[in-house]
Design a protein that fits this description.
Strand content: 5-15%
Helix content: 40-55%
Structural class: alpha+beta
Shape: elongated
Number of strands: 7
Length: 275
Amino acid sequence: MKRVSLLSAMVLVLLTSCVSKKKYVALESNLANTKSELTKTQVEKEDLEAKVSKIEARVAEYNEKINSLKEVNDSQLSSINDVAVMSNNTKKKMRTTLSKVDPKLLANATTLEDSMNLAISHNLKKSIADEEDDVNISIDQTVVMINISDKLLFNSGSYKVSNKANTILKKLADVINSEPSMEVMVEGHTDSRTINTELFKDNWDLSVKRATSIVRILQKEYDVDPAKLIAAGRSSYIPLVENDSKENMSKNRRTRIVIIPNLDKFFALLETEEL
């Protein structure tokens, strides 16, 4: 009986010892896994901290730029009715110019865009011609459009540029050459009277010939880069007014110069010495 009890006790001790070893191995495995996860978490934490540090540095850089922009005065840019961007220097020059504009015209300027139109038109007309009725300037967003009556450029039914156009074309070339990235389209427009000669089959031919004549002079006589120039003929299909009188037909016979300038440089170029 005593032998059975002793044998049972020994078996119990062995079983207890075996279970404890398994638990120990399991605990060791759990510990190793925990250490591995901890190391991985630490690496991820350090990686996140590095990314956060970079983001904070970028935010600080942007804040510095924003603060520096706030400190800019005369060179600070602003939007005008979503139409164009001008510096405060240009605005000041524009206001000075507007003080010289006919009060009747100024009274019709109800928006900043209208005021800019008036200022640019006033200076450009003063620069390129004394006969304001024969030159019309307007802007649409940042595009400047200059309509010049054909009586300042061509004889009736001809595409040869007259000598009296030299002053106007020289001024236009100065404007175009002032901005390297500027593109310029020269459009020929006619009235509704049909033409059919040895030189011109119709008004399309005449309008194109007139546009290319202007383009060639800008290139050859005034050194305008030909890569910046576009010649286009519009025939009689975009009239300014109805072709129902000689006066109106004269208005429709025109050359339109379409340019996309840097407004600050453009305005500075047209600024007179008294400004």
